[in-house]
Amino acid sequence: MNILVVGGGGREHAIVWALSKSPNVKKLYCAPGNGGIAALAECVPIKATDVDVMAAWASSHAIDFVVVAPDDPLALGMVDALEAAGIPAFGPRANAAVIEASKVFSKNLMERYHIPTAKYQTFTDMDAALAYVRAEGAPIVVKADGLALGKGVVVAQTAAEAEEAVRSMMADKKFGEAGTRLVIEECMTGPEVTVLAFCDGEHVVPMPSSQDHKRAFDGNRGPNTGGMGAISPSPNYTPELAARCMDEIFLPTLAALKAEGRPFRGVLYFGLMLTPAGPKVVEYNARFGDPECQAVLSLLESDLLEVFLACREGTLDKLDIRWKREAACCLVLASGGYPGSYRKDYPIEGLDDAGRTATVFHAGTRLAEDGRVLTSGGRVLGVTATGATLDEAIDAAYASAKHISFTDIQFRTDIGRS
């Protein structure tokens, strides 16, 4: 089959890497791709959000199957457009992807179907939002309703910090239209766990649990980022918790979406908080998390293309999806200044040496005309290693990352240990 993967980050590199192992893949394309993906797939210079151009290109290039990986094109209806053009695609349609595209929708869905989550209120009026913050006090969580590159959440430790978050989102338009509506919710406590799950509209098959590290600096300090590293599985996610989450969260969520006329086919991301009162939903995503994807897919033994096809065809219950009995760690190497402003186009050294002991997934890279790999984004690389134990995987990822250097390199030193 000729396969097109939409996107150009570390998540898409991991998906392309896993698909490249399938004997049923004839040719791989990625749009727009990046400097590392280019070694495995033909990169096509089309923006991931250019729905019409992407569908037209796939139609004219005999593409048999498209994997839509990022959140924005899913929310824009790329799967709908591809299917309308007669091209099978992996990922939820827009009316199901709204579970990530609108936090107001997802919180209201959880309330209607009694899925455990934090107490919350939604706002379109800034003065009302500010009054609620003052009444509730801190700590408190302020969330932009729409998509904001994983950065639209502020966990405010003081009321003043929360008020500033409200103003920056609603008055200053920090996240554009994504912040015109807000969710303000109680600050839950407990370990955070991510569970990615394959879904075919009827059935849900969880992958190994994972744990993202959102804050920019060691000790979980600093601003939220798109993710500075991830481990899998999470040591906090026991079989007993897994069974409870399946009964109280995973199956009810899939059933709720179906009941609303929004059957979900693709990867559903469950961001969970293991609170003293039990597991609760922090957020949903309508796709693989990044960098959780890199860690989790490094443990997959089954053919990823077969899984994707089963999700679309409604036959997920017929598959026996196999995973390595190991652990994985993905360490993100970022540009200095991320998630704020940063410079690009620094040469990256040591990739071959690091690649001998780990899989280096490219996120923000590009190929120069002379063949050098240059930095081109905030999160540059995801050095991913596996091991018999979590400690071994973490040690291997850090040991491999030591080979890599570029100007202003930034990374956390406590992934999996904080």
From TrEMBL:
Positions in coiled-coil regions: none
Which one GO biological process term can you cite for this protein?
A: purine nucleobase biosynthetic process
GO molecular function annotations of the record? ATP binding; metal ion binding; phosphoribosylamine-glycine ligase activity
**ATP-grasp domain location:** 107-313
| This protein's record includes keyword Ligase | yes
- Top enzyme category: ligase
Q: Which SMART domains match?
A: GARS_A, GARS_C
**What pathway, per the record?**
Purine metabolism; IMP biosynthesis via de novo pathway; N(1)-(5-phospho-D-ribosyl)glycinamide from 5-phospho-alpha-D-ribose 1-diphosphate: step 2/2
**Sorted alphabetically, which keywords does the UniProt record give?**
ATP-binding, Ligase, Manganese, Metal-binding, Nucleotide-binding, Purine biosynthesis
Q: Which catalytic reaction applies to this protein? A: 5-phospho-beta-D-ribosylamine + glycine + ATP = N(1)-(5-phospho-beta-D-ribosyl)glycinamide + ADP + phosphate + H(+)
Query: Could you name the domain of life of the organism this protein comes from?
Result: Bacteria
Q: Does the keyword Acyltransferase apply?
A: no
Protein name, entry field:
Phosphoribosylamine--glycine ligase
Q: Which organism is it from?
A: Lawsonibacter faecis
Q: Which gene encodes it?
A: purD
